[in-house]
Design a protein that fits this description.
The chain has about 220 residues and is mainly α. It has two domains: about 120 residues; about 90 residues, Zinc/RING finger domain, C3HC4 (zinc finger) (Herpes Virus-1), CATH 3.30.40. It is built from eight helices and three strands.
Length: about 220
Amino acid sequence: MSFSAVQAALSGLRSCQEDVGTNMDMLTYVAMDLVESHETEHSSSLETLQAMILESAELEREINCFSNIVEHLNSEVSQLPPEALFSLSDRVKEQYEAKRASLSKAELHNHQKVIAFKEGVGSALQPENGEEAENQDEDIAVTQRFVNFTCPLTQVEMENPMKNKVCNHHYDEGAILAMIKARHKQHKKFRCPVVGCGNINVIQADLVPDLFLKRRIQKRNASQV
């Protein structure tokens, strides 16, 4: 096996990891559709979907763990004679099994997309408060929708909204991750860009995809076509 073959295999694993993430988003959309259908018997189906997304989270975690180990060891043996590559497989297996044994299933509930699933279903279960909305002044309602759908960084409508678990504010994924990365390179903290927010250290670990809000934006745009 050559180094190029190892890199090709790693690329395939990363692609598979992305596919698993996409499938997890689809499971969340199915769960939200189920809730919004107002079917009386959906609790068992939601439990099944949650079990499926936890299994997907475990698979994604294992792929990520395996890929990281291979990348690390591959960088090590690349500095050694070619014959060192023959020991790569055994070393990967040994480190992977040790790492896998240390992982907890309870930690899967902290997976970004598992949290997004639970929050998406929870948001779909909440009533829209229609009577209250009808009593609001139309201009105020329009302003609230604009603020909710607009990224405070780009000032344009979000495509992939991310929710900050600390302050509950939303940002578009590309904009917020780019800003966090830029500040990290400067060795500086990044303050939440929402005016008046006291969160002075926005980090990627505190961000989760808000698929419920994303779908609201998509539905709103579809109705305006």
